[in-house]
What we know:
The structure is a homodimer.
Chain A: E1 2-6, H1 12-21, E2 25-29, H2 38-41, E3 45-46, H3 50-54, E4 59-62, H4 67-75, H5 80-83, E5 89-92, H6 98-110, E6 114-117, E7 120-121, H7 123-129, E8 132-137, H8 140-153, E9 154-161, H9 165-193, H10 198-204, H11 213-224, H12 233-249, H13 257-272, H14 279-285
Helix pairs in contact in A: 1-7, 9-11, 9-12, 9-14, 12-13
Amino acid sequence: xxxxxxxxxxxxxxxxxxxxRAGHELxxxxxxAERAEPFRALGGRIASTAGDAARGQDAVITIVxxxxxxxxxxxxxxxxxxxxxxxxxxxxxSTIAPGTSRKIAAAAQARGLRFLDAPVxxxxxxxxxxxxxxxxxxxxxxxxxxxxxxxxxxxxxxxVGRTGLGETLKLAGNxxxxxxxxxxxxxxxxxxxxxxxxxxxxxxxxxSSAASTELANLLNRLRQDxxxxxxxxxxxxxxxxxxxxxxxxxxxGLPIAPEALRLLTEHDAQGGATLDESSYLRxxxx
Amino acid sequence: xxxxxxxxxxxxxxxxxxxxRAGHELxxxxxxAERAEPFRALGGRIASTAGDAARGQDAVITIVxxxxxxxxxxxxxxxxxxxxxxxxxxxxxSTIAPGTSRKIAAAAQARGLRFLDAPVxxxxxxxxxxxxxxxxxxxxxxxxxxxxxxxxxxxxxxxVGRTGLGETLKLAGNxxxxxxxxxxxxxxxxxxxxxxxxxxxxxxxxxSSAASTELANLLNRLRQDxxxxxxxxxxxxxxxxxxxxxxxxxxxGLPIAPEALRLLTEHDAQGGATLDESSYLRxxxx
Lengths: 286, 286
């Protein structure tokens, strides 16, 4: 397919590479232009605005940092929706509020475009290996059209339901992983402060009912004393805030998440922002 | 070895069977006498008090429900410490406060006995299969003496450190698993209330960074609409309370656990007590 691809960050660059490798024709755009340059050698074309990347394509993929960036890229005067031809399929793979997805879907539909929200999980490793999990909201027919693209980037590809539900499941999953990390950190703090040697924690807990992906991740970080992102506190905070705000807007009580959000906001303000989210544990041990 | 074995509950009965099968001579005692009867056919002797079970043994294993029961069985007039010969190794495998373990260890030492705290994880399935994880506090020499017994009951056998540290690691691990369950329940609630179909949650989250043993357990319970214990809310609450009290007594701040304890206490009071701990999710969805 002829594709526009917008957003060549930690995730996007690998996803774009995998699409090129699968034989699609890519026109890429990135706000910081230098990040687009390497794609010339891979056979990609480089656009100077998001709108240029979207013009005359079969589909346009966006994966940028947050709601405001998606709105700018899609809804702006130089943006995707203004430039794309009717019938173009717009696929936003950023992690944003489901409400923002629905707003962009409506603007796209008003100009005869189609829209899928399709956030991913699996991190930079999954992006590089083409093994991402992709959660998709939107029409089944559009989902089927996009399937070859998703298959070039991911392994577990799930049509969750109507527009926005891809993002909803992503945010709920991120709420769980973020809070799981925080409570694992709390238990590690307790064990260490009570005098349990770190290697005994590593020997037992990952093989007990306390086991989780985030616990394993934390113990790995602690052993290596390595706190660079990875997934930054700022990013984790953004996703947690989106989940808590979505729940609040829809009147869904969350017993623990708002307090966890407050605690992580505090950690962010006290210097955690640029570190990996696992630095929450380091702060608890300080 | 000649063994006294006290406490033939959900875990203890299988552990005692495995010790018999490994060739040890067992004298068993259980407060509710009927539970001891089946051991006659397996070649075990049946004692009428804890003290009788402890008399003349090389080692005595206790695994009962809570601190008060351990104190009664070990420290009571008809109890283990009054009856056992000097040199006997007392191994308490109950989940109790490390402070109680240290108190019993001191009473044992005063009469020339030796003591290990050795709580387990792995549930009734692990107990039956002899695949428990066993976390041991006490002297290295005593740990080595007990090793053949532990190997008959468990697979991962870890000497954590001094007296009480087996219990400490157990409580910290249970704090993590209990809180992991609660935050997973919270995220599942959010996704379902926002309209994500249950089967889509099952398809995605166990393969994402939200993955944990407790999340898988919850989704399994939800699919089967099955809420009988397993591990009851009352037992989970007991362990969580022990961990929070230990932290408080030792001046170790826990940011989230006290509020989680309050929430689970509420669930317990509202009819959850006799159900499996996963019923916390059912209550969040009601």
